[in-house]
Design brief:
The protein has three domains: about 60 residues, no CATH class; about 180 residues, no CATH class; about 150 residues, Rossmann fold (3-Layer(aba) Sandwich). It contains 19 helices and 15 strands. About 40% of the residues are buried. The protein has about 450 residues and is an alpha/beta fold. Helix 3 crosses helix 4 and helix 14 crosses helix 16. It starts with a helix and ends with a helix. The mean pLDDT is about 90. The strands form four sheets. It has a six-stranded parallel beta sheet with strand order 10-9-8-11-12-13. The protein has a five-stranded mixed beta sheet with strand order 1-4-5-6-7. A two-stranded antiparallel ribbon has the order 2-3. Helix content is about 45%, strand content about 15%.
Length: about 450
């Protein structure tokens, strides 16, 4: 390794360690400072800046007081017209996105039932990715859509104090919106808003395709551990590689694997650290691959690792569980996976215990049963059943019927149906959304079209 490369590696290590300390030790003080500045901005009537900082404070470290202030802002904004809404005004610009761009991030999970021009049973529509929520709300008359469909939002990341999510509180109070909230603090935040938003503990990790991620045919494991990540600094690939190098000093036969998808803004630096780790260990490095290839690679590993600082509800660990591979999660990771990691599925350890945990998985036969647990608890079919029961209760409160449960969806990696015979429903999405475009809504036209969906 050249002096230049060594300088890049150790400089990145230092920056990452500083970020880790800030994340784990100073989240609460940073949140409080942001909240104080937000209150000052609101006091001098710099409302947009004040609300922006208040939401940032809630995302860094939420508490009852901050959530209560957000709730009051949301309640006041609900009384304003669309054009005057602060939350609407804070949404990211469309930047040329149109209704057709929303179609691939939307899925019909249930068709509405209409008899003689009267709605008898609501349909269900799920919208995926936080950035899609913004464009969806700006382009679609969400209130009218909610008259015929229950809407489910599946956010990308933890930290739900965002205009893209909060703007949905502007719907009529009986038009409830389910927000998938795998992370405990996000669940509490949505619940404490006391709005039309309804949290569910379900998250992206509950939709893994069990036909794609399957156990290895062989009991022999090629790798002692694997980490599936990308080139974002928040993934802390550097920490995984440091642990790998440290373990190799004790066991020169230790065999780790790293898979990195192509996205992320620190590719150059992380590739230098990969070279550093390869020079000091038996690391095998892989770039992006198909889901079938990933299943084979994960299935041939003894443990599947996640050490990032912040996630949505990382699918990688759940995919490993379907491959019958236990998970190793750093306790400092802010994510929605923690309720999935238990005595049947893996371990949660502190960052400082990462090396010892890797050695433990490497040297001993663990008594985990991850595939059995996920089949019973977070299969797409079980997830759809849980959501069906939740939505059924909501609809019966509105005196609407519930005769059919949700179609079973999966993330493969985009959202689609487990049952290929339902793929024909994709063709209806663009037209359906166009019918509910802002400024073009027509009761008669909508009813006719909904009745025409096969």
């Amino acid at each position: 390794m050249t002096d230049y490369s060594r300088k890049i590696v150790y400089s990145f290590f230092f920056r990452q360690k500083s970020l880790f300390i800030l994340h784990t030790k100073f989240a609460l003080p940073v949140s409080q400072v942001l909240k104080l500045i937000a209150m000052l901005c609101l006091a001098i009537r710099k409302k947009r800046l004040g609300v922006t900082l208040l939401l940032k404070s809630a995302r860094v470290s939420s508490n009852a007081s901050t959530t209560n202030r957000v709730r009051k802002i949301v309640e006041a904004d609900k009384l304003l017209e669309h054009e005057s809404s602060l939350l609407v005004g804070m949404l990211p610009p469309l930047e040329g996105r149109g209704i057709n761009d929303l179609s691939s991030r939307t899925l019909i999970l249930k068709k509405p039932r209409i008899i003689d021009g009267e709605l008898i049973e609501k349909g269900v529509l799920i919208v995926k990715f936080t950035e899609t929520f913004s464009a969806f709300y700006q382009l679609i008359d969400a209130d009218e859509l909610s008259t015929f469909f229950n809407i489910i939002l599946e956010p990308s990341w933890v930290g739900y104090a965002l205009p893209e999510i909060l703007v949905w509180t502007r719907l009529r109070v009986d038009n409830k919106v389910v927000v998938l909230s795998g992370y405990e603090r996000d669940f509490s935040f949505i619940e404490e808003l006391k709005s039309n938003l309804v949290p569910s503990t379900i998250g992206p990790a509950d939709w893994v395709n069990p036909e794609t991620f399957v156990p290895s045919d062989s009991n022999d494991k090629e790798f002692d551990c694997i980490y599936v990540a990308n080139f974002d600094s928040a993934k802390r690939v550097d920490r995984f590689l440091q642990a790998v190098v440290n373990v190799t000093k004790l066991n020169d036969q230790f065999k780790p694997a790293l898979v990195c998808a192509s996205h992320g803004g620190n590719k150059k630096d992380i590739l230098e650290i990969v070279k550093w780790a390869q020079s000091k260990s038996n690391l095998k490095f892989y770039s992006g691959m198909s889901q079938a290839e990933l299943s084979r690679l994960v299935g041939s590993s003894k443990v599947n690792v996640l050490v990032s600082l912040r996630e949505g509800a990382n699918k990688g660990l759940a995919e490993g569980l379907w491959c019958d591979v236990p998970a190793l999660l750093a306790s400092e990771c802010v994510c929605g996976n923690t309720r999935h990691i238990n005595e049947d599925t893996g371990m949660i350890v502190s960052d400082s215990d990462l090396e010892s945990a890797l050695i433990r998985f490497s040297q001993s036969q663990q008594n985990f049963r991850p595939r059995k647990w996920v089949e019973a608890n977070i299969s797409p079919a079980m997830t759809s059943f849980k959501l069906s029961r939740m939505l059924e209760e909501m609809d019966r409160e509105l005196a609407l019927e519930w005769t059919k449960d949700l179609f079973v969806k999966t993330n493969s990696p985009e959202l689609t149906y487990m049952d290929n015979s339902l793929l024909y429903l994709h063709k209806y999405k663009s037209v359906l959304l166009t019918k509910f475009a802002r400024g073009t809504y027509s009761d008669v036209d909508i009813l006719r079209y909904l009745e025409s969906i096969e």
